[in-house]
Amino acid sequence: MDAPQTLYDKIWNAHIVYKQTFSQHAMLNDSLYRTPQKNDLDLIYVDRHLLHEVSSPPAFSGLRAAGRSVRRPDCTLATVDHNVPTSPRNGGEHDLEVLIADPESRAQCSTLEDNVKEFSLPFFGLHDKRQGIVHVIGPEQGFTLPGITCVCGDSHTSTHGAFGALAFGIGSTEVEHVLATQTLLQRKSKNMRISVDGELGVGVTSKDLILHIIGVIGASGGNGYVIEYAGSVIRGLSMEARMSVCNMSIEAGARAGMIAPDDITFAYLKNRPLAPQGDYWERAVEFWRTLRSDIDAKFDVEVNIHGIDVVPCVTWGTSPQDVVPITGVVPDPACFADQARRQAAERSLHYMGLIPGTAMQDIKVDNVFIGSCTNGRIEDLRAAANVIRSAGPSTVVSSGVQCVVVPGSTSIRLQAESEGLHTVFRRAGFQWRESGCSMCIAMNGDQLEAGKRCASTTNRNFEGRQGAGGRTHLMSPAMAAATALRGTLTDPRQYQSQTTETNVEFEDNIKSPATIPELPAMAPAISQQVQKKESKIFRILQGIAAPMYLENTDTDMIIPKQFLKRIDRQGLADALFFNLRHDSKTGASLDFILDRPPYNKAVFLISTGKNFGCGSSRENAAWSLEDFGIRCLIAPSFGDIFRNNCFQNCMLPIELSVEECRSLAADAELGIELKVDLEKQEIIRMTPSQNPIKFLTDAFRRQCLLEGFDEIGTTMQLVHDITAFEEKRTQMWPWLDGMGRGRKVQPYSDEIRMDW
Ligand SMILES: CC(C)[C@H](C(=O)O)[C@@H](O)C(=O)O
Ligand code: SF4
Predict the structure, then answer these.
(1) Per-residue pLDDT at 493 exceeds 80
(2) Which of 676-688 are b and which e, b meaning 16 or more Cβ less than 10 Å from the residue's Cβ?
């Protein structure tokens, strides 16, 4: 009998196109065989690929430069979300010149439009009623389905795991890999199960639950794991609530989060435009019912949480793990036993302008933001509106507080308007906007001013996330609405609204025109030679190392959002750690370590804190480090996407113990140079007294660095395996072909207008 498997194991194993084993790498030289290796990578098939305008331009440029095409346009869906304005869109005005004032934002959006035209890809543009945040529209349209692998150049792809999918974020180079091959080379993560049993108290929401979970396991607690959420509380959540939970798995440091599909999942998906129909629906549901962890399946880590222990909570600091009950107080950094955590808390409180012991409910806010891929769905808007309604018809937002609602998609905006929610918000003094990411990342001009404090339903409270110097408190939509009314952080239970989260059935309020361009279902497969690039070789590196002592250094910190608008990957050295190097108000230089000799010439960066490069998937973080001259990063652990992005850019991320990192940082303080030898997998300190430190790297990645292989070209050699997998896939899951309609039906049927 087969060994019991987790849900993650099942989906992973069912998607392996090719198993990399170390001995198969013919071009390895002998010494490599004798060196111990970490796990190898698997080439896995990608069923669904979502694209947005920020992370996709370099991928298309790469594709174009190599003369490659998109292998599966019928499994790809693009939209614009991060840069789009949330002010009125002029009733169908199509001209981006008129709609998007900022030239860089406009360039990203128009570049995506050009790319989808050139490569014939399905696209929901700014003027399409199905446009919205990529993680909102995927599920909404039925593009996201149980049992699939789903990727996007965006870290919150974990959202789609709510459907029992394996969904995770990737960097731009990996986006190019998927466009060209419909596959990805990945290392399998470990299994973690978080079981939430019993039930949630009255007025406690899924956002409180996921904040509570992150508070318990920490922002790096999920590093190296895929989390399966289970237990009676999770089973009782609506799909929208499950999406909020899975969405923030990335804030817990996990590769992905997932929930086994059930009748609630199937009811949500039924009749969605891109979900299987008719016979395919029946077959799909039969298969989907098998998607659950076997009873005896072994998880590497089990976490148990009692629903009753979860209360409405809010963040006080600049990491999503900085969570307290809304009825609590700002913690004293001295209460953290761990030194790194204590220092992080001190830094956070300074940034947030808070004093330990202050009651959370006494903290005044300047702004309230309701929206994002975590909480911009219809159920979230209903929950917030219910709080306002239950406060009474004449209640308005507290004087001087600027309050904004940004629906997660245009379809949600229309749904909310049909329910009259916009009137509830407007009457209370909220601004009612068009859909997009908006102030979650502040790329579109909607942003928090320096020093201002925002009650936000988003997922990241990182320094500068909503605007340089801006202060973010994460919370549920109900709490955000209650806070808007009182002007200070507020427990929503005092408004005793119905905050229960109910499943939302699909209501098709948007009929799409039936004009569809003729498109190829599948691009012809081209077998290519593995190319070697001398510029992409990493063997030995010697030089200065710069020490850093922060925990959870996020990629927003490494490169803030304003530099993500550049289409180019060069010239980003000045953007590196911009907000740590410059005062947010005056722009004055802050004497940051990388600006001081000898560290301004550093080629190594040593972080003593874990989870370096957590958060967003922006490959710009790796590009800016590389442009500065850093080629090797050493830390106790890395954010998964960031680590992969380093490898893709010929940079070496090395994981060592905290003690080893501290000892290397101490040497770096003395200006002692380091030398890394990748072939031997050792770090040598350029001083006679120290022994080399050994480390391990993924075998295949190491080979790519040593030999300068082009990973996409390597995968394209496996075209016969990919084609064979696709044939098997069509037999097993025919509904995944042709944009959810099977290959027998036109891949682009009436429902799927390409809105160019
Ligand atoms: C721009 C994109 C790459 C990024 C992400 O990966 O998460 C963004 O969505 C964010 O939330 O920071
Ligand atoms: S986290 Fe914010 S910026 Fe990122 S995809 Fe979600 S809404 Fe957009």
Answers:
(1) yes
(2) bebeebebbbeee
d(CA 390, CA 492): 11
Ligand nearest the Cα atom of residue 444: 2
Ligand 2 contacts (CB < 6 A) are: 81-82, 133, 135, 154, 156, 372-373, 437, 440-441, 458-459
> Is pLDDT above 90 for 586?
no
Q: Is the CB of 172 under 6 A from ligand 1?
A: no
Closest atom of ligand 1 to 443 CA is: 1
Residue 73 CB-half CA count within 13 A:
24
Residues shown for the chain = 756
Give percent of the chain with pLDDT exceeding 70: 89
CA angle 573, 579, 583 (to 5 degrees): 120
Residue 686 to residues 532, 545, 668, 673, 674, Cα–Cα distance (Å): 31, 11, 11, 5, 6
Cross-strand partners of 192:
227, 301
Residues 369-426 have pLDDT tens digits of 999 999 999 999 999 999 999 999 899 999 999 999 999 999 999 999 999 999 999 9
| Residue in 185, 144, 237 with CA at minimum distance from that of residue 44 | 185
CB distance 157 to 171 below 8 Å: no
From edge to edge, which strands make up the β-sheet containing 166-169? 123-124, 76-79, 48-51, 149-152, 166-169
What pTM does this model have?
Answer: 0.93
Distances (CA, A) of 221 to 253, 254, 311, 459, 616: 6, 8, 21, 16, 17
Q: Whose CA is nearest to atom 7 of ligand 1?
A: 616
CB 388 within 8 Å of CB 368: no
Among 154, 246, 617, the mutation site with the greatest number of ligand 2 atoms within 8 A of its Cβ is: 154
What six digits make up the tokens of 662? 């501290």
Distance CA 97, CA 345 (A): 44
Residue for token pair 């075209």: 719
Domains of the chain, CATH where assigned: 7-306+714-736 (3.30.499.10), 337-495 (3.30.499.10), 534-709 (3.20.19.10)
- Say how far apart CA 163 and CA 146 lie, in whole Å: 5
Taking alpha carbons only, the member of 24, 304, 99, 98 closest to residue 192 is: 304
Q: Which ligand is nearest to the CA of 56?
A: 1
